[in-house]
Amino acid sequence: MAQKLSGTTALVTGASSGIGAATARRLAADGAAVALVARRKHRLEDLAAEIQQAGGTALVVQADITDRTQAEAAVDQSLARFGRLDVLVNNAGLMLLGPVLGADPEQWDRMLAVNNRGLLYTTHAALPHLVKAAEDGPRNVADVVNISSIAGRVAGNGYGVYNMTKFGVNGFTEALRQEVTKRNVRVGVLEPGAVATELVSHNSEQVRADLAASDAENIPVPLQPEDIADSVAFMVTRPRHSSIAELWAMPTSQA
To answer: What average pLDDT is seen over the chain?
Structure first.
């Protein structure tokens, strides 16, 4: 049976771990050539070797997408290698939690840079090529999937600035969808609930302890990165005429 993404190219940001790595594996398994974009080159090289050993095609692109020049160069490198771009998965993200009162504004700058500016820079660089792929590609459609969070819909104590960045992702996604949907570029946002990744590790010990206690009480079975990767694959391999503007992926409450 033919692979659903044969002949296409996907670019995945934040591909060095967690959801990004799982998504890259899944899209490669579906036949896409995958550009792996992140700062940690050694992890990207390990992932690329894994994908290639499984019969897939992957390109390592070391870049910090919070730098506009590097984000643009990442797209250019992908095009130079593969000649086209059909799928963009904006996955790179940072979650730093805590109250606004007494917070370190440098943490806000880091989150805004990764969650918002990096996504915007990469999308801006990729969009003309996605439009071209929709016009003359093998599927006559292109896809942008922005990995947001349930925090883009539901506010929580201690999540304030993180909420703001993810509400921003959701608003940008909807505005972009309205802008390019008639060009056959499908734009959707994926909003996971609790996922077992290293995202929490950037927080203080107290924040990590509080989250662990909350999850133990309310979310005994968190999602795995592969669950999110399956959701991304569902969004980009669906029939050409169908559109998913927003998809929630929520963990089970049962052990």
So the answer is: 88
